[in-house]
Design brief:
There is one protein chain. By secondary structure, the protein is mainly α. It has a domain at 3-72 and 152-221. The chain is 78% helix and 0% strand. The protein contains ten helices and no strands. Helix 5 runs parallel beside helix 9 and helix 7 packs parallel to helix 9 (175-229). It is a multi-pass membrane protein. The chain crosses the membrane at residues 29-51, 155-172, 178-200. Keywords: Cell membrane, Cell projection, Chemotaxis, Cilium, Flagellar rotation, Flagellum, Hydrogen ion transport, Ion transport, Membrane, Transmembrane, Transmembrane helix, Transport. Residues 101-218 form the MotA/TolQ/ExbB proton channel domain.
Length: 255
């Protein structure tokens, strides 16, 4: 579980609730079923109208990726690649079969299996880059869905306010009820803005960032695999891969 994300959500809620208290607003006004129906169901309807069924069915998995605290240790990846490169340099690529079978990283394992099997470098590169592009497309759709929902909910908040004001204008003779209905009308706007700009659009940005981290990790793996196949010196491979990494994560200590 990504605790940092949960902290961000909690801080957003905290800011709204404490802000209302400081301003003297009644926090119980947030308990508005009509506003919740307009915003949450309306936002889901916007998603259904924007994306096909196969994408909507992936929503639980998308949220799973979002809340999963998954890290891509490029330093460990480079160390693994260098270990394979050193053995390949001493004993040849075919000697790596045992080490390759023991690899836990499925992407690296698949690439190295193709190397051991003697596949053409261009074919290996094409196959692995196609896998990266497929991943980018899937993750890009997930991020776009969050941003679509996030851009829809504030507008639905305005719609909820309009609906509430229509109801209020129908009760102009009841001053007490009028004030309550006007207050409730703007709860939908609060819901919509909060859901869009504090939750959903940031979720989309976070998914895009997670996707980029995974893509960068896979690109480092591809470079390492092709370098091993071409028989490059492990020191050369290390310099090449370090150039693709965040300076703070490099194995050479140059930060």
């Amino acid at each position: 579980m990504d605790i940092f994300l949960l902290i961000g959500i909690f801080l957003g809620l905290f800011a709204v609730i404490v802000g209302m208290i400081v301003k003297g607003a009644n926090v119980l006004a947030l308990l508005n079923p009509a506003a919740a129906i307009i915003i949450f169901i309306g936002t889901f309807a916007a998603l259904i109208n924007s994306y096909p069924r196969k994408d909507i069915k992936r929503l639980p998995k998308i949220f799973g990726v979002l809340f999963k605290n998954q890290s891509f240790d490029t330093g460990e990846l480079v160390e693994t690649i260098l270990g394979l490169a050193q053995k390949a340099r001493r004993e040849g690529v075919l000697s790596l079969e045992g080490e390759v079978n023991a690899l836990e990283n499925p992407f690296l394992k698949n690439g190295m299996e193709m190397v051991v099997d003697g596949m053409n470098p261009d074919q290996i590169k094409e196959i692995m880059e196609n896998e990266v592009m497929s991943l980018e497309a899937r993750h890009g759709t997930g991020a776009a869905m969050m941003k679509t929902a996030g851009s829809s909910s504030p507008t639905l908040g305005v719609l909820g306010a309009v609906i509430g004001l229509i109801g209020a204008l129908g009760n102009l003779n009841d001053v007490d009820a009028l004030g309550h209905m006007i207050s409730a009308a703007f709860v939908a706007t609060l819901y919509g803005i909060f859901l869009g700009y504090v939750i959903l659009i940031p979720f989309g940005n976070r998914l895009a960032r997670k996707s980029q981290e995974e893509v960068d990790y896979m690109l480092i793996a591809i470079e390492g695999i092709l370098a091993i196949q071409s028989g490059q010196n492990p020191n050369t491979i290390e310099r090449k891969l370090n150039g693709l990494m965040d300076p703070n994560l490099r194995n050479d200590g140059n930060k």
